[in-house]
Amino acid sequence: MRAAVWTLAVALNPATARASPLTDLVGDTSSAGGLQAGTVPGGAAAAYFNPALLNDAPAGATVGFTVLNQRFDVALDGRPGTQFAVANGLENAGHADGTRFDNYPIGTNQLQFGRAMDARHLAFAARPRQAAGSGHETTTYEVFGLVVKLFKEHLALGIHGLIPNGQFTQMRAFFNDEREQYFSNSLHPELCSDRMTAVTLALGAGLKLTDGLSLGVGATLGLKANVVAPTYVVDAGHLENILIDMNASVNIGISPHFGLSYKPSDRLHFTATVHTPQQVELGTNFTFLLANGVEQSSGVTFVLDYTPLQLGLGGSFDLVKETEQTLTLAATVGYARWSTYVDRHGTEPASPYAWSDTVSPTLGMRYRWHDLSTLLDVTYKPTPVPKQTGRTNYVDNDRVSSSIGAAYHFTVLGTDMQLGAQVQVHHLVERHQVKLETPTNAEGRNLAPALVKDEVPDDAQIGGDPVTTAQGLQTNNAGWPGFASGGWILGATLSLTVAL
Amino acid sequence: MSSFGRVVDDLAVTHVNAHATLPRWRRATGAYAHDGAIVVATVALVGASACRLGGGDTVGVGYYGAVQAGSGGARNTTPNQASGGSHSQGNGTPLAGGMITKPPTTASPEPSGPTGASGSSNPSAAGSPSSTAGSTPGIGAAGVGAAGAGAAGIAAAGATGATGTDAPGPCDLSGRWLSTVHYVTEALGQQQVTHSILYYEIAQQGDSFTISKGMQCSDDTVGLGSFAATVDTRASWAAVASKAGYTGRTGSSTAVNGSCQIEFQKWYAVRGATVPYYTDPANALPTVDQKATDTAPGWEDWDGDGNPGITGVVSGAVTGKVFIAPRLWTTISASVPDVSSLFKVPLQWNVEQNVMSFDGTPLLAGEAVRATDMSLHFVELARLAPDQATGDDQAICASLIALAPTLTPTAAGM
Fold first, then answer.
1. Which residue from B241, B250, B267, B156 is spatially nearest to B203, judged by alpha carbons?
2. Which residue of B has its CA nearest to A463?
3. Which listed residue, of A49, A327, B7, B24, carries a Cα 20 to 30 Å from A480's Cα?
4. Cα–Cα distance between A498 and B239 in angstroms, integer?
5. How far from the centroid of its chain's Cα atoms is residue A436's Cα?
């Protein structure tokens, strides 16, 4: 009971938590939960998906190994003409009234091909379009889980973890517009890529109120970090000689989730779940002190692995329920409030390209023949991302996912065990989008901030001389004039559960 | 993996006029299939190349601008080009010591009178149409001869030497002048103020005048912003005073409705490189590999430090040295109430900084550009008293540098 109280207290602490986009994608890979782990009782993964279902899970410990292969392809349309290129050497350009641009693009040619070193310049490494894309990684994970029953099985406690191997976890922030030219100059899958390396660690507790009614509460754990780096710049031309201190703080964050399980009859089962928003916050702040006493500061708070409020309703019915075999049909509807999405730089996509809330249906079946259990789920998750015809390049696709799995129950030296295997296929439905035309004007004003940015305003001048190549649109937006995306995510898991 | 999307490789090779280096990673399409070598080809894109999915990220064939990595931005005028003037100032043939005495003979936008007047001191120009036409009323053949004599007198005595003319009018610039030039450049949003201190001996005939002795005594650049740089080129001042002269520059000062309309001929001044060759804006300034020889123009080590051109010692947020051979043009066209002692006029100018190399951070290679706000660029001219700034060139310059903050306080300030 003390554990339950502690769990509840943790769950009600409204701090920022470690998000679980990976778990949301793959579902329960080590038991019968599959892609409907919030609806169908399974194992320890219920600690995340629906803690109320922990009461229906057998007590036991689970270990497993998962491999996930992302094959998320992005194809950029060719740039249609040189007039859209940013000329080199515009770093000292400005508006006609002498004011500076709000940002300065790199010459398109230089960006694409780089620059060799000469007497006056160091070499500039090329950043070709889409040469540094992501979403092609293969990652392995360790799966572990534990379910413990207390008080004559009226209380069930569970813990579920999905820990990436190798680099453990990766967090990568990128811009979704022309500003990414300074970095990878590539488009990245918004809801995949590094989000697939998020560590998931969920705790849950299920309380059986009656034989047919259980409630559950849980939380995912994570970190909230803030790093302040005071910097002394001896010579702005020799940044390799800067002196840096560090002042970092790390807080534990949690995000609660809730579940309900109700069995109105021996064959019918309903569930409901609520997952509160999750995200990782990484604050970075810099102060720069120059030798001449000038001090300036800057900072940004990165938001990673954002997962919105999610609601789920599910139901299952045992079509066949016999001693030798069981056939269960299950369905789940999930709602995700993606309209509140915050990207990695803490920006919320705004109208007219605001994200949409989504409703995702999942259908599946479970079939048991003696000691062999199988599962099959199919789900459709529409993308919350509108077509990216403007400045932003959020890459995402509708997704059709299926999971098929089997588990075999056996006994070794009087201990019940279960060996399970699952294979998942996620198809990212191909999508092509073409940017809308950007209007420009002689005054150099940005008439349509939501559209692809004209990075060299038409009134551009250098030292009072007009820049003749400034007329019309010039952009290094990697997604311009259009791009397509699609692909597959393949996963497989092998797991072993030992009854306690 | 199924394929997806359109693949439109509507490329049509229409003509060959540019060099493009295409990297290996680019999708091979038609004539673009290659392994990173230099390809001489230009294509006209009939339709944008769309994309294909599968087998990793891809990029359609497209245009990234002319291959110009490292070149300057596309401005409508090159630094060599003049706005509203001829590209040839006809600085003339240098005599011993590099001083330019030959006056403009052709294509000068200035009135022909001064050209003819000073032309009389150079036999090679005496027969030019401008020297004989006497096109400026009041300066006939006799006047030309007198002016030539006057100019000679200036050179010999260091006096104003406005001989051979009528009594000075209210707009007569004849005399000795301190000219303090104030202009502002910008680099990466940071402003630098440059002051150039010049010495003029002006001989005016009628409305037209010629600078019979002109030299640049000093220049300094002071950064204004937190990250701006200050540049010190004092090691080259003596050489600049002797080589980068303004002698022979022409102009006019005309009384108009109670004011004086001042016109200074557009003039190119080069430092750290062969003059007069590089005063012709048609000649590209030298690179670090083009050192002057007995037979070929190029950069010259004017400050004798063993480095190309003149050396600018940069301090501030960025430190180091730049080795430059800049070419600056200036011109003045303004109306002032009177020219009796001190007047201020706006300056039109531009510069090719020509940073040939540097010692320190590559940030030093970044060139500054003229500030857009033209009110930041101006000149103050102060008439010198007979006892001010006398002696040899070195003494004159030393005096002017000391006098500038007092006699031309606005231009010498920030």
1. B250
2. B370
3. B24
4. 91
5. 27
Whole-number pLDDT of residue A119: 63
Distance CA A305, CA A169 (A): 11
Residue-level pLDDT at A266:
93
**Of B46, B40, B8, nearest to B27 (Cα)?**
B8
d(C-alpha A201, C-alpha A145), whole Å = 10
Residue B44 lies in a domain: yes
Residues of B in contact with A84 (CB under 8 A): 63
Nearest-Cα distance to chain A for B298, in Å, is 16
Spatial separation of the C-alpha atoms in residues A316 and A270, rounded to whole Å: 7
Taking the Cβ of residue A427 and every Cβ of chain B, the question of whether any pair is shorter than 8 Å is answered with no
Q: Which residues pair with B270 in a beta bridge?
A: B327
Residue pLDDT, tens place only, A376-425: 999 999 999 999 999 999 999 999 999 999 999 999 999 999 999 999 99
Phi, psi dihedral angles at B321 (to 5 degrees):
-130, 145
Tokens 């001190």 correspond to B342
The dihedral region occupied by B354, where left means phi > 0, alpha psi between -120 and 50, and beta the remainder, is left
> Residue B84 CB: number of other CB atoms within 10 A?
9
- What pTM value is reported for the model? 0.71
Q: Output the six-digit token pair for A332.
A: 């789940």
CA atoms of A468 and A66, how far apart (whole Å) = 57
Is beta strand A278-290 parallel, antiparallel or unpaired with respect to A213-233? Answer: parallel
Q: Which tokens go with A225?
A: 């970090």
Q: Could you tell me if residue B127 is inside a domain?
A: no
Instruction: Select from B65, B369, B371 the Cβ nearest to the Cβ of A107.
Output: B65
Closest partner residue to A467 (CB to CB) among B64, B75, B370 is B75
Tens digits of residue pLDDT in B209-235: 999 999 999 988 888 766 677 888 988
Is B3 a domain residue? no
- Which residue range(s) make up the domain with B87? 26-122+171-412
Distance CA A286, CA A295 (A): 11
- Residue B149 covered by a domain: no
The partner residue sitting opposite B63, judged by closest CB among A81, A116, A462, is A81
- ipTM comes to 0.74
CB contact at 8 A, A20 and A255: no
Interface of A with B in 263-292 (CB under 8 A): 290-292
Window 14-73 of B: residues touching A by CB (8 A cutoff) are 21, 23, 25-26, 45, 47-73
